[in-house]
Design a protein that fits this description.
By secondary structure, the chain is of the alpha/beta class. Strand 8 and strand 9 (354-357) form a beta hairpin. The model is unreliable at 232-246 and 250-268 (pLDDT under 50). The structure holds the ligand O=c1[nH]cc([C@@H]2O[C@H](COP(=O)(O)OP(=O)(O)OP(=O)(O)O)[C@@H](O)[C@H]2O)c(=O)[nH]1. The ligand O=c1[nH]cc([C@@H]2O[C@H](COP(=O)(O)OP(=O)(O)OP(=O)(O)O)[C@@H](O)[C@H]2O)c(=O)[nH]1 binds next to helix 2, strand 3 and helix 6. Residues 289-367 form the O-methyltransferase dimerisation domain. Residues 249-261 have a biased composition (Basic and acidic residues).
């Protein structure tokens, strides 16, 4: 049901939300709006000093975000949207404009400025109506802003840092999310709460009413409240039997009379249709259909990686579809379709001259980039995709599905599945190397580890994390402990450099062989592979090898205790089910495991992305 009937005016139009903000998406879809999401690429770098007021800055940014999307969609030969909505939320305090923090220190600066004070939150909104004539894009912009004042309690340093480490501030204006943990910092709110969250829904509906039902001259003679959303019977009066054209209504005197001239039967049918639509048409299931299409998008991304499309385009760009097709040895028509989808997903740029990589593709999808995830993509395409086709069996049986994919029994997960041939082992190691390189710096710097002089990275694979630990702590000696086959290949992943002397590889099986001695043991994305029994076995071996005061650095994606949030973590749970013998665990579960094995003083830091790091200290037994 659409509460605000004017939202229904947009149901027949192609509406695009030019925003990556999940909050805006949620607010608008809860209001029954059907829309596509195309995040804007407009860089939020307007000169703040050139605006007389902060809200003008927010409105202009919102407008530029929406116009960038409208222009890009029009140019890309996608169908020009009818309406593009852009928004920008800022916080102002003491004459300063605060946007999203760039790092934890920035979040700290913002939140300490807000502590104990009142500040304003402005959201600027732009509604851009688009039309296309002779391939030219025409736009009409309607913009507005909303202000809400929020007062914070005095925040202690401890609370402030705990909040920052939760990771919540990073993608939020002013460094807090009033709708979640940040709500605990707030003493009072004056004005529209949703405006603080990122989208002033009430004002938006009023703006639509103004756009689609501008007051008639006779209304203007009567005392009419223009800032209200009309009551439902007012809307009945205003109902538009055409169900909405692509333009907002340009009400002219007499437009009602024209409707009155419609034949009685026709009017009755149209009214009945209008009532039926309003009463029975449920909100369009945009999100559901996007979820359904998710696997097709993944497969398109994986296929483009497998065909090395991004490698060819990194070498030479722009290139037309037939040229790429001949290089990747594929049909021209199929390649063009794949390239267009990649462009629509924001992985490629499409211009008259041809296709080029976006920055994301150059950074992460080309196989020779420093932070390439190409190996991880291939592992997903060749192994994980197949395992997920048996998800139903995994759910029914409660175990991994390698036996179905491989057609034989798997006794030893790594030897029989991942390392069953030199090719599968290399692909697995390349995948792990890509992910580890991307996250190693955050893991190495999550805590101050300078008190340790030796570390053992258990199952450390190619040594990507060891390298970052060595870089961060020049007096640390790191042993990478992994299976003999892994150690043999790992040298190929180790670049020469000053850290090489700090890193050593030791071959062994951590379930069977003695562990190398160290002051700090690292288990990074290891325990989630194993059953509770094996986790106990491993932790007791680590505990036995530790002297009092030794550390254990555990890195995993932690589930929340109720297993409701952290979509990434919950998907990892399914991933672990189809792929491994283990499972994702919550912070509480890990804390219990650690304490049971004599590791106390557990500290937790949430890292960017989905990982969490826990540091615990071995106490005397
Ligand atoms: O209490 C809350 N305050 C603010 C937010 C979220 O903060 C961001 C504001 O950033 P911006 O307006 O630049 O929007 P982006 O997220 O970068 O997305 P665009 O693609 O639209 O630029 C916004 O997401 C708010 O929702 C919050 O969640 N709580």
């Amino acid at each position: 049901m659409v509460l605000c009937p004017v939202i229904g005016k947009l149901l027949h139009k192609r509406v695009v939300l030019a925003s990556a903000s999940p909050r805006r998406q949620e607010i608008l879809s809860n209001a029954g709006l059907r829309f596509e999401v195309v995040p804007s690429r407009f860089k939020e770098k307007l000169d703040k000093a050139s605006f007389a007021t902060p809200y003008e800055y927010a409105m202009e940014t919102a407008k530029q975000k929406a116009l960038e999307v409208a222009t890009r969609m029009h140019q890309k030969d996608l169908r020009t949207p009818d309406v593009v909505i852009g928004a920008d939320t800022i916080v102002t305090v003491g004459g300063l404009i605060l946007e999203k923090p760039v790092d934890k220190q920035d979040a700290y600066r913002m939140l300490s400025r807000l502590s104990g004070k009142e500040h304003s939150v402005f959201t600027g909104v732009a509604i851009v109506h688009c039309s296309s004539n002779d391939r030219q894009l025409h736009t009409r912009v309607s913009e507005f802003y909303e202000e809400t004042t929020v007062k914070f309690s005095e925040l202690s340093e401890e609370l402030l840092w705990e909040y920052i480490h939760s990771g919540e501030p990073m993608d939020k204006a002013g460094g807090y999310g009033i709708q979640a943990l940040g709500g605990m910092l707030v003493e009072s709110v004056h004005g529209d709460f949703l405006n603080v969250v990122g989208f002033p829904l009430n004002h938006f509906c009023k703006q639509l009413v103004e756009l689609y039902y501008p007051p008639r001259p006779e209304d203007l003679r009567q005392p009419v409240q223009h800032d209200c959303i009309p009551a439902v019977d007012t809307f009945e009066d205003l109902s538009d039997v055409e169900g909405g054209g692509s333009e907002p209504a340009q009400r002219e005197t007499g437009s009602r009379d024209e409707k009155a001239e419609v034949g009685a039967a026709g009017q009755a049918t149209a009214e009945a249709e209008c009532h039926r639509t309003r009463a029975t048409l449920p909100p369009f299931p945009t999100r559901l259909l996007e979820l359904l299409d998710g696997f097709k998008l993944s497969k398109a991304l994986l296929t483009a990686c497998k065909l090395k499309v991004f490698d060819w385009l990194k070498r030479e760009a722009p290139q037309k579809a037939p040229d790429i097709a001949s290089k990747v040895d594929a049909s021209a028509c199929g390649t063009e379709k794949l390239l267009d989808v990649c462009a629509a997903m924001g992985l490629l740029e499409k211009t008259e001259q041809g296709y080029s990589n976006t920055e994301t593709a150059n950074l992460y999808l080309a196989s020779d980039s420093e932070y390439s995830l190409h190996g991880f993509m291939l592992q997903n395409d060749d192994v994980i995709w197949n395992l997920f086709t048996y998800l139903e069996f995994a759910i029914r049986e409660g175990r991994n599905q390698h036996h179905r994919v491989l057609g034989k029994k798997v006794e030893d997960l790594f030897q029989d599945a991942y390392y069953r041939s030199p090719e599968t082992q290399l692909r697995f190691m390349q995948a792990m190397h890509g992910v580890a390189k991307l996250t190693a710096r955050q893991v190495a710097t999550a805590f101050d580890l300078s008190r340790f002089s030796s570390a053992c990275d258990m199952g450390g694979c190619t040594g990507a994390l060891a390298r970052e630990l060595a870089r961060e702590y020049p007096r640390l000696q790191v042993t990478v402990f992994d299976l003999p086959d892994v150690v043999e290949l790992a040298v190929h992943f180790q670049p020469a450099g000053p850290q090489a002397a700090q890193i050593h590889f030791a071959a062994g099986d951590f379930f069977r062989d003695p562990l190398p001695s160290a002051e700090l043991y690292v288990l990074c994305r290891i325990l989630h592979n194993w059953s509770d029994d094996k986790v106990h076995k491993l932790l007791s071996k680590v505990a036995e090898s530790c002297k009092p005061g030794a550390g254990l650095l555990l890195v995993e994606t932690l589930l929340d205790e109720e297993k409701r949030e952290a979509q990434g973590g919950l998907i990892q749970s399914l991933n672990m089910l189809v792929q491994t013998e283990g499972r994702q665990r919550s912070r509480g579960e890990y804390q219990c495991l650690l304490e049971l094995h004599g590791f106390h003083q557990v500290q937790v830091v949430h890292l960017e992305g989905v990982l969490d790091a826990m540091l615990a200290t071995r106490v005397a037994p």
